[in-house]
Amino acid sequence: MTAADTDLERRWELIRSKGPYGLLAVGTLLSVATAELMPGRGERTAVAVLVAAGFALQLWWGRASRTRPGPSTAGTVYYTLRWALAFVLTWLNPFFAFYAVTGYFDSDELIPGRRLRWLGPFACSIAVSGSQAGGLPFHQPVQWAVFAGLLVVNNVILTVVGHLTSQQEERSRARAETIAELERTNTALHQALEENAALHAQLLVQAREAGVADERRRLAAEIHDTIAQGLTGIIAQLQVVANAPDLPTARSHLDRAADLARHSLGEARRSVHNLAPVALENDGLPQALKGTVTEWSERTGVRADFTVTGTAEHLHDEVSATLLRIAQEALSNSARHARATRVGVTLSFLGDEVILDIRDDGEGFDPLALPERSSTGGFGLPGMRARAERMAGCLTVETEPGRGTALSARVPLVRHE
What DSSP line would sit under 129-170, residue for residue? Predict the structure, then answer.
């Protein structure tokens, strides 16, 4: 139920509980103002007694209704007694029809069974129509005719209003059920999304673990089938050389050992080549860097520009892989920590060395606050520095809080064999 529905229900409850007091008070005040219409002292006394009985009845029902919510026999008794008081009071003074109107509001809340509920408003319409026709009892036939017409009109209005109210309640009920169903559906969908996200993360972890395990098995088989067997063959040939009876025999086995060593070296290079970044499989370093920068910009929404200076060279695979990994790590750090709005990547060929510069206009940081690099390298800046140093190069960083970051990796230019 919405807040508006709750507020409307609270107002209706206020009308049902306090309305009879107010309408009875209105009828009493108008009766006092028109006391001359009741010529007998006994009628005035009867009105006073009945009004007191009406207030007492309301006080009793105010307490009794707390333990008898909803349609019940007690509610029917209360409704009948209230109608009887209202009818007699209207007979004595037509202005008490205001009190009789109370029966229009709560018959469905007090009388059980739909077939009986219409009797309450119909009985109330008798008192109201009698008041509208000039007051009971009637002394002229024309009053009876007017009363009959008013009775028909009042009940037609009650029927139309009741039908419209029923339709509105049905629509409200259907709307509330629809909202409740949507809430349940949204809750189920949210739970399903959370479960799917958890499942997706689990599948990614499993796929990563499976990929690592497959790669380890592949590398183990590769080493066993190529390098290990080649080294075993070399050892065997050298053992023969050690026991060779003459120089020609020893030279022959040394040649075989050299051939096995060259073959094993070729297999080792092939294995290393297979571990190169995927971006370098079909493209050179400039093209791979351009694609990496473009993909990163599209993924993060940060403007990123890539520039090549000098004459591009076809670099050794290890050099290309090292610079590409440094660029990927620098871009990843910028996305995670820098909060930059613009990034520039420049690859410069300077004859005997290659320089990779990555600049951003982000938050920067204090280089002295970074942990010291371990001997194994690691990730982030220490990892990038270790990569450059393995290529006999270096990595420099210029940054300070609030002034962005400039990173430069320099490595020797080693051309592809």
Answer: HHHHTTSSSP-SHHHHHHHHHHHHHHHHHHHHHHHHHHHHHH
E strand or H helix at 353: strand 353-360
141 and 162 in contact (C-beta within 8 Å)?
no
Residue 287 near residue 385 (C-beta atoms within 8 A): no
The better pLDDT of the pair 274, 157 is held by 157
Q: pLDDT tens across 319-356, in order?
A: 888 898 899 889 888 888 888 899 999 999 998 899 99
Considering only CA atoms, give the Rg of the chain.
Answer: 48
Among 44, 346, 337, 204, CA closest to 52: 44
Q: Are 89 and 52 in contact (CB under 8 A)?
A: no
Position 10, amino acid = R
Rounded Cα distance between 13 and 74, Å, is 18
Do 105 and 19 touch, CB atoms closer than 8 A? yes
**Rounded Cα distance, 389 and 403, in Å:** 27
β-pairing, 303-309 vs 342-349, is: parallel
Strands 353-360 and 405-412, by their bridges, are: antiparallel
The per-residue pLDDT for range 49-87, each reduced to its tens digit, is 999 998 999 899 888 887 777 788 888 888 899 999 989
Q: In what order do the strands lie in the sheet with 342-349?
A: 303-309, 342-349, 353-360, 405-412, 394-399
pTM of the model: 0.42
- Tokens 């509330």 label which residue? 176
Residue type, 69: P
Residue pair 343/305 in contact by the 8 Å Cβ criterion: yes
3-class DSSP assignment, residue 179: helix
Question: Token pair for residue 385?
Answer: 């520095």
- From CA 166, how far away is CA 2, in angstroms rounded? 19
